[in-house]
Write a structure and sequence with these properties.
Length: 328
């Protein structure tokens, strides 16, 4: 079709935006034959910087880029959006308590949820990257009563990709050889990267690794704390990899996960695997045409159960906190 797909991106002048916009505009998300219209939201003081980014987008002369609009009003920028990638969020700054962070982001995601509810296209899909991603998605979803709840997802694909890369290195394989890896729960230090159902070259990954101590003491913390390791090394948080994962997640959601495999995506829990209903919790999902389904029937041992419940408990705490603040 020649009608451009409208992709809204928030926090467009930020570091993830600086990588993400160019990947979307070049066709990495929707393909080289689908024109894309970018609708970029920023806070007022960042609009000038965003104008500079738009100049660079112009200068790339991407054949797939049909147009760019920018603004600081969500009700204008989200108008007619088919896909919204909510990247912009309030970072935790010095002296800020956890409650302050939830409150600051709550204000952003209630307003953006309401705006999406009002003006987005009927086929809108929403992916939340901005942290705390799961709870921000919960807030936006709750404030958009007319949008089906399954349209809201939060990003755990970066954690999934980090886990793929760590497991490939450990087993002397490539990421192409690995299937059925899962990130369960929250995009936070409590997340549970699970290789017990994963396959390396068709064989069970945990058996190939054959080292429970490595899984517990090395693999899981390395994946869960990778963001901090990047900050330590680079002096700023992961940006290109976060943008890449944001693309992977949206592309697979719209165009389908690979046959014989699944992806990790934080979606509204329907109670599957004993996780409290209504939380935005990362599950193994298969996707097709903008729909997703939680992979059912995986056997969960005691070790996995404990990890899955711990990360669910953190999400319950976050939900209780934002409920207490009147945000949902
Ligand atoms: P930056 O601080 O570089 O950029 C964020 C941008 O958002 C800023 O330009 C800011 O002006 C804008 N912004 C703030 N409030 C806004 C609002 N109400 N409407 C529109 N724009 C707004 O952060 P960056 O490194 O790009 O990271 C963005 C978010 O992604 C952060 O919350 C970060 O914690 C989160 N991350 C999430 C990851 C994930 O896997 N889910 C991994 C990477 C990243 O840490």
């Amino acid at each position: 079709s020649t009608t451009p797909v409208k992709v809204a991106v928030t926090g467009a002048a930020g570091q993830i935006g600086y990588s993400l916009l160019f990947r979307i505009a070049s066709g990495d998300l929707l393909g080289k034959d689908t024109p894309v219209q970018l609708q970029l939201l920023e806070i007022t003081p960042a609009l000038k910087a965003l104008e500079g980014v738009v100049m660079e987008l112009d200068d790339c002369a991407f054949p797939t880029l049909a147009g760019v609009e920018i603004g600081d009003d969500a009700n204008t920028v989200f108008d007619g959006a088919n896909l919204a990638l909510l990247v912009g969020a309030r970072p935790r700054t010095k002296g800020m308590e956890r409650g302050d962070l939830l409150e600051a982001n709550g204000a952003i995601f209630t307003a953006q949820g309401k705006a999406l509810n009002e003006v987005a296209a009927d086929n809108i899909r929403i992916g939340v990257t901005g942290n705390p991603a799961n709870t921000n998605a919960l807030i936006a979803m709750t404030n958009a009563p007319d949008i089906p709840q399954e349209r809201f997802t939060a990003l755990t694909r970066l954690d999934h990709n980090r886990a793929l890369s760590q497991l490939a290195a450990k087993t002397g394989s490539t990421v192409r050889d690995i299937k059925k890896l899962t990130i369960w729960g929250n995009h936070s230090a409590t997340q549970y990267p699970d290789i017990f159902h994963a396959e390396v070259g068709g064989k069970n990954a945990a058996e190939v690794v054959g080292d429970q101590a490595w899984i517990e003491n090395d693999f899981i913390p390395t994946v869960a704390k990778r963001g901090a390791a990047i900050i330590e090394a680079r002096g700023s948080s992961s940006a290109a990899s976060a943008a890449s994962a944001t693309i992977d997640a949206a592309r697979d959601w719209l165009h389908g996960s690979p046959a014989g495999d699944w992806v990790s995506m934080a979606v509204r829990s329907d109670g599957s695997y004993g996780i409290p209903e209504g939380l935005i919790y990362s599950y193994p999902v298969v996707t097709k045409g903008g729909d997703w389904e939680i992979v059912q029937g995986l056997e969960i041992d005691d070790f996995s159960r404990g990890r899955m419940d711990a990360t669910a408990a953190e999400l319950v705490e976050e939900r209780d906190a934002v409920t207490g603040l009147g945000l949902i």
